[in-house]
Amino acid sequence: MKLNNKRYLKIYMFILCSIAVHAETYSTWGFFGHRKINLLATYTLPFPLHSFYRRHQKELQELAVLPDSRRYILDIEAARHYIDLDQYDLNQVSFSTWEQMLRKKSEDSVRKHGIVPWHIPIVYSRLVQAFIQKDTLQIVKLSAELGHYVADAHVPLHTSSNYDGQKTGQGGLHSFWESRIPEILGNQLDQFSGPATFIPDVQHSAWTWVLASHKQLPLLFSMATRVSADLKEGEKYSFEQKGQALVKIQSLKYSLAYHKALNRQIESRFQAAVKHVGDLWYSAWLSAGQPSFE
């Protein structure tokens, strides 16, 4: 049964968002980043597709964080958000399809090290089918979740087993890079990333994105070490009110110093994520025959 009634969409959101309130600790780009990426991606779309996505901007933002929420109920979910490229010979695995990869490694081994470049094409194919069926509920849900996985592929730390700096004595680097600094930058991230364009090979593009992210890791790790060494311990952290809790967090001085040292790395990956989310939404619509929703 097609559930394209807005009432069903609201019910669906209520149920899933009741789980999402527990997920921010694990959310890549943070709640702020994922929601903003999906929102800004709607502005890359041409008319009339933009009109459809604009009507569902609220849902696209709220549902953006739900893949993280599913970690509480699905054991297989976590692997969809990352790939430990440092655990592979890149010459052997880059641009491989899922079927090609399974001829090289066992499925358990592959899933252990993350499957984001292979999961993105799966969600994309489902979105194409939802467009063909003109199933509004599924289009909005899958668009939001596809946006999440694409955004994850643009985070350098999601391409390494040292995802939180835990192997290099830099624990907490994960949330520092993708949550704390983006929240400080705020509206500075609201830059137009260009109009959406058609992506002919989603699998190839997904690999391009994770490989580009992976190349950013040396700068990310080295600057974290340098900036930390340049500051006194008392300058690095402050306390801020988060809801009803007072939490220890990287200070504004520390955050801005690290951001400056990265030379716009975070903005670059953020804007690329926005562009590529829009590209895939647009490509799915085109591949489905450009259905009308007027």
TrEMBL record:
Pfam families named among the record's database cross-references: S1-P1_nuclease
Keyword vocabulary terms for this entry: Disulfide bond, Endonuclease, Glycoprotein, Hydrolase, Metal-binding, Nuclease
Top-rank taxon, per record: Bacteria
Gene3D superfamilies: P1 Nuclease (1.10.575.10)
Recorded GO MF terms: endonuclease activity; hydrolase activity, acting on ester bonds; metal ion binding; nucleic acid binding
GO biological process terms on file: DNA catabolic process
InterPro entries listed in its UniProt record: PLipase_C/P1_nuclease_dom_sf, S1/P1nuclease
Keyword Disulfide bond found: yes
UniProt-listed SUPFAM superfamilies: Phospholipase C/P1 nuclease
Protein name per Swiss-Prot or TrEMBL: S1/P1 Nuclease
